[in-house]
# Entry
Amino acid sequence: MLLIIVPIAAATLLAVALFIFLKNYFKFDKNFYISFAVLAAILISINFLVSDIKFGSGPDTNSIIFKPGELVIYDPKAEYYVFFTKGKMDFTKLAPGAGNHLIDCYTIFGKTTLFIRPDVPTRILLYPTFGLIKLPNGMRYIPFFRNFYPNKAFKDDTPAIDIKINIMFGLVEITEDDPSRY
# Structure
């Protein structure tokens, strides 16, 4: 129950703070806020309609929302999401294939533990927006610019798994280990 309340409270606090900021500094009236809320709802709805988000459980699921869970990554062409919860993304069963694949992963108001194999060439592209990243070597940082993390097996001239991590107000921990240990 607490895992549902905390992210909703954080999102509500963010919305209230944004509302107060706009009200005090720009002196907008209530018509602006109603129009802004309707426009935001329309944009979020369109985003859900055109994306391939699949909720639930099973091998076809690519999203975790409100309830902690695990995504085992088999399809390099899909996008994977963690919304308002704690989730695991297991890349240990994915082979690099004949060429590079770019797999999009999103963490929004949540914590994601990403599992990669140390012997499979992997490059992780980091696109954070107010997110914290913990690398396998123990480094933690809050980058406000794009960066990447190559594992030790990665070489520029070999096929690799490319993972693009998009973080919005969340934490991503990258682990080069077996997920069954956690």
User: Anything to note?
Assistant: DSSP finds two helices and twelve strands in the chain. Residues 63-181 form one domain. The chain has two domains: 2-50, 63-181. The CA atoms of residues 101 and 162 lie 6 Å apart.
